[in-house]
Amino acid sequence: MKNRDVCIIFIKFPEAGMVKTRLGKTIGMERAAEIYKKLAENTVSSIQSNDYDLIIAITPAEKLEMFNHWLGDLSYITQTDGDLGKKMQNAFEYAFEKGYNKCIVAGSDIPELDKNIISEGFAALDNHDTVAGRAQDGGYYLIGMKRKSTDYSIFSNMIWSTDTVLTKTVNRLSEHGKNCAILKTLDDIDTEEDFQKFGDRFV
Q1: Per the domain annotation, does 200 fall within a domain?
Q2: How confident is the model at residue 202 (pLDDT cuts 50, 70, 90)?
Q3: Whole-angstrom distance between the N-terminal and C-terminal Cα of the chain?
């Protein structure tokens, strides 16, 4: 293993009606899938670095060959069943079982996410138990932990896609005596209004 840190990116196959459905309700599912495809490609390109390993957590598993054709010869794992919390916990468990010291899990629809932010996250873990990137909607676009101070309670019984996810996450960590570094606030793209903020930058 070249690096002791790993970034795991969650990516869905860009099939119409299966990705960005909120966006698709106003601009059409085919167009929404095209936008998601380019967002995911931009994410993979922007965060690749020699400073840490990159793993793509894919769904659905049966499209692995298509992911290889689409994104290239990368390291892939499959997302588990269950809600987002279960999927993220599984990703962390996989990373630490493989011997990584630090792991950051992130989404693939954050236009301004890049390798510098990922590296800032790993650096923050030198002095914090957890790191999170604040999303404009009150959630987080990345979450990171180190093997010696994991706390998977932040993934249990969480109501995802609400504006209190980050606050509840930090509170749970504090209750367990753990701290959390917060990275810069970024937007994701879920609605047509979100998409319009970035103009033609990613499409």
Answers
A1: no
A2: low
A3: 36
Cα–Cα distance, 15 to 33 (Å, whole number): 6
d(CA 73, CA 175): 42
Q: How far, in Å, CA of 131 to CA of 121, rounded?
A: 6
Instruction: Identify whether 43 is part of a domain.
Output: yes
Q: Is residue 175 part of a domain?
A: yes
Is this model's pTM higher than 0.85 or not?
yes
Burial class (CB within 10 angstroms; exposed 0-12, middle 13-18, buried 19+) of 122 = buried
Question: What value does the CA radius of gyration of the chain take, rounded to a whole number of Å?
Answer: 16
- The C-alpha atoms of residue 60 and residue 73 are separated, in whole angstroms, by 18
Q: Does residue 77 fall inside a structural domain?
A: yes
Kindly report the CATH number assigned to the domain that includes residue 177: 3.90.550.10
pLDDT in the model for residue 190: 87
DSSP reduced 3-state for 110: coil
How many domains, in total, are found in the chain? 1
Compute the distance between CA of residue 102 and CA of residue 111 in angstroms, rounded to an integer: 24
User: Does 138 have pLDDT greater than 90?
Assistant: yes
**pLDDT of 197:** 86
Beta partners for 11? 58
Domain that holds residue 106: 5-195
